[in-house]
Each structure stands twice: as C-alpha cells, then as structure tokens.
C-alpha cells in the first residue's frame, strides 16, 4: 500500500512532550515571517506551579503528593487544559502538553491559551474517598491561579466528570458562590455540557471523514484500526462505523482484536465501560497493541497514549494515513519517516480538538447560565471542526507542506498576530 520504507537510525530514548512541541513550533515558524522574539517566547511557559498536596488516607495515615500546573501562553484568553492523575506526571510533561493546548485552541480559533497539569499519583491505588479528598485539596492549592476568567481546568488521564464536580465544589465553597465555569467536563447536572465526554472521539471521526473524502476514498471500502478503545477511540470508531467504514481492529491496554471483515463496534464495550472487555471479546483473531499498529489498513488511529509511533516501528506501519486520537502519539523521528514514505499524518491538535471545543461551549453555557441541547452541541461542533479543517486544508494546498505543518502554521499565525497586536508590556 505504501512505498518501500527508508532506513532510519533508531531513537536513543523516548522523546519528551516539550521537545516534540518545540520542534513542531520551529518547523511551522520556518514557513512564516514571524518575529524571532515571539517564537522564542513560545518556546517557554509563562509560569509553572509546583505544590505539595497532603492527603489523609482511609487508614488515618498521611501521605504527600506532588502537583503541577503549567501556563504556556495566554495572549488569546484564559488558560485552558486538563488535569491528569498519573504516576508519570512531571513538570516537563506539563509544559509540553500546555504548549499543545495553546496550538490546539488557536487552530480551533478559541479564545483560550494553553495550560496543563496534574498530580503524581496512581489513581487506581486510591479509594473513591481518597481521590475526592486529594482533588479538593488540589483545588485549594490551585485556587490563586485558576478561575473562570484566568485558568479553566478539565479532565484528563485518571480524572473524570466526577473529579471535576468535586473540584468545582471545592473552589465554589471557598469563593462563597457556585462557580460552574471554573472547570469543564463536569456532569451535566452541575453545569456540564451534553456531548462533552464524546467530543474528542467525535471530532477524530469528523476529521477522519473529511480526510477520507479529501482523498476521494470510498468510505465503505476504507479500513480502520484503532489503538485504544477508551473514550476517544471508541467514539471515533463508532462514528466511522456508522458512516460505513470498516473498523477491523481495536485494542485496550491488554491487547487487540482483529476481524478483516469488520467489527461491530457498538457490540464491543469500551475499556472505560468494562475494563478487559475489548481484549476478551470473541473475535476471529487476537493481536498485541504493537501488531495493531502495523496492520495493512487505510487509516490508523492511535488513541491511547503518547509516543507509540517511534523510529523503531515507523518503518513497519502499513497504513495509508494516520489520524492522531491521543496527544503526541508520534515522535519527531517517526514523523520524518512517515513524511519520507508518503504516509499522511493528521495531527492531534486538530483531530481530537473536539474536547476543548465542547469545553468552550460548556464554559459559555456556564457563564451565561443557559443550557444547550445535545443536538445544538453536535451541530456547533461540526461547524467548528469543518471551519478548522478548511483553514488547515488551505495552508496544506497553498504551501505544499505536511498536514502537521499546515495545522501548526494556522495556529502560529493566529498566536503571532495576537502577540504583535497586543505588544509587549514594558
């Protein structure tokens, strides 16, 4: 399906999020007449907060956890970005992910800047009550830095709508009034938006659909493999399945299932619904997650974690096109190999941007105290995704660059213009 793979040196070690983000910034800047000072400014975060969070465990003992919140760039509006609970959370990762949020908000033309953060903890080792106490204390530690017009967190790895409800309640109690707009991704009953949980996967489906149509592929003849059948992957797979595409493989953390005739994605429960259901599903063939990435398919959607496509396996990828569902699944070295091989990569900052876009809708609903119907949310999301896709497509065609470069060019152009217009405080 693709040309013969070129040889490439393997990566000595895993590339960090901030290294990848800076390389992508520099590639985009090379195509634009942007002041070097602005580019240098965007290589660094505005601020990074580090805090120690005490937690009383259920047995009465106390334990200390480390939390971070990185603010990258707020020239276009309040900071926006998720909070994750994961053992591998670091300051550097938070900075890199906050940079991606800046680009993501800009390419979607949302009035937000980029932020990210989290707590160094394995949430699976916490009881529900311990997770709640940790969240409420973290909210209190962050209170001077966040707010509906300052920084609006959202759920990420290891956090969910319930976490955001606790976070919002803790903040509101200290403020003396209910402030639903301080976070997004909440349950609808306390100010969350309908369609928010499904939005990242839905946007991956929309962008994949547009890319399939752009290359004039027959939707019903298009085969798709999805690594990571969680919230993002499952919703993307089901969206494409409903369009008529053939989703032949999906996976969870334990392994993958494969049916060359196509899976019924609505019959497979996603990993969030029933852990272990995906890899335990009765399918014609079982694969490893690594084998799924190398299947001979039209579209590969890595929707699990970052850095799964590297120099070590990029030559073995047989997909015609990659649509990034996860944040940062492709290293720079792998990206170069895909470019040399003619494999198109649609980047995460547009593909999964449905999450932050519907978070923007939720924020609007909260500050205006007016609820939107699910149908309106999905209609507005469709409109915004198509507007962003068309802007990226125009740059892709006009400049003869990769899809990733075209996406970053759109984002950087908007951010640079905002910096030029606002100027520099003396």
Structure description:
The chain is of the alpha/beta class. Among the domains are: 45-181, Leucine Dehydrogenase, chain A, domain 1 (Rossmann fold, 3-Layer(aba) Sandwich); 199-351, 3-Layer(aba) Sandwich (Rossmann fold), CATH 3.40.50.720. The protein is 41% helix and 17% strand. It has 13 helices and 12 strands. Strands 9-8-7-6-10-11-12 form a 7-stranded mixed β-sheet. Strands 1-2-4-3-5 form a 5-stranded mixed β-sheet. α6 (199-214) packs across α11 and α11 (354-368) packs across α12.
Basic shape? globular
Helical/strand content category: alpha/beta
Q: What CATH first level of the domain at 199-351 would be assigned?
A: Alpha Beta
Order of helices and strands: HHEEEHEHEHHEHEEEHEEHEHHHH
Instruction: Determine the CATH superfamily of the domain at 199-351.
Output: NAD(P)-binding Rossmann-like Domain
Unreliable stretches: 1-12
* Rg, alpha carbons: 21 Å
Relative helix content: 40-55%
Count every helix, treating DSSP H or I runs of 4 or more residues as helices.
Answer: 13
Describe the largest sheet.
7 strands, mixed
Strand content: 15-25%
Strand order of the biggest β-sheet? 9-8-7-6-10-11-12
Mean pLDDT: 92
Second CATH tier, the architecture of the domain at 199-351: 3-Layer(aba) Sandwich
CATH-defined fold name of the domain at 199-351? Rossmann fold
Distance between the termini: 56 Å
Total E-strand runs: 12
